[in-house]
Design a protein that fits this description.
- The chain is mostly helical and 213 residues long.
- 69% of the residues lie in helices and 0% in strands.
- The longest helix is centred in the C-terminal third of the chain and has 20 residues, at 149-168.
- The chain is globular, with a radius of gyration of 19 Å.
């Protein structure tokens, strides 16, 4: 009986607690808020998404501690999907007035890339952030967004085409060196290059998480 109790204590200690998630949201507030902002496209919705993510993460049941950071990011994405309903909006996004004020607080090197992402339609924006920045597979994106895998592939293609046109138009800007131009030749690379510092490398298999959720 004693051995069983010890095993149970060790097992329970392997899972993240509400306090662990609160610490993650406090320590990585800037990164998680940026994720919320990129998905929702406005300050008010981003703040609501961020707060919802805290609550949903705290209620998570039996999530391993080493998965907690990625799980927190997943709750942000799920919250944003509920708030924005990207499948219901196929047109280009209308820039929220609150987005301008938030953009001004970002590092200068990131503002052009963030602005380009916000100009995508909601579905294109969600697919690009989830697949290119968060590294979700097409199958994972389709599950969370509630659409066909082909819709995910098509939305990402449109997003990359739009971003490529926007970033390509900046090649003639003064002060851009050869190395910058080389990066700007690929829309996905230029976005990742400037935004990746805010998006930690995924540390667990989301496929496993989705199957166990």
């Amino acid at each position: 009986m004693e051995r069983v109790n010890i095993t149970e204590v060790i097992s329970s200690g392997a899972y993240a607690t509400a306090a662990d998630f609160e610490q993650i949201f406090t320590r990585e507030m800037s990164a998680l808020y940026l994720l919320s902002f990129l998905l929702t496209g406005g300050r008010e919705k981003a703040e609501e998404c961020f707060v919802n993510g805290i609550g949903e993460s705290a209620k998570a049941n039996r999530v391993f501690k080493e998965w907690a950071r990625s799980w927190a990011r997943r709750t942000i994405i799920q919250s944003a999907i509920r708030l924005i309903a990207p499948l219901q909006h196929s047109d280009r996004a209308m820039r929220s007035p609150s987005a301008v004020g938030t953009m001004d607080k970002l590092p200068i090197v990131s503002q052009a890339e963030v602005s380009a992402i916000l100009d995508l339609s909601p579905l294109e924006r969600f697919v690009f952030v989830m697949s290119a920045l968060e590294r979700y597979s097409d199958h994972e994106c389709s599950i969370l967004l509630g659409c066909a895998r082909r819709d995910v592939i098509d939305a990402r293609a449109r997003a990359l085409q739009h971003l490529g046109q926007l970033m390509g138009s900046q090649k003639s800007e003064p002060g851009i060196g050869p190395e910058d131009l080389a990066v700007r030749n690929n829309a996905m690379q230029v976005i990742e290059w400037t935004i990746a510092r805010y998006f930690p490398v995924r540390s667990w298999s989301r496929a496993n998480a989705l199957s166990s959720a």
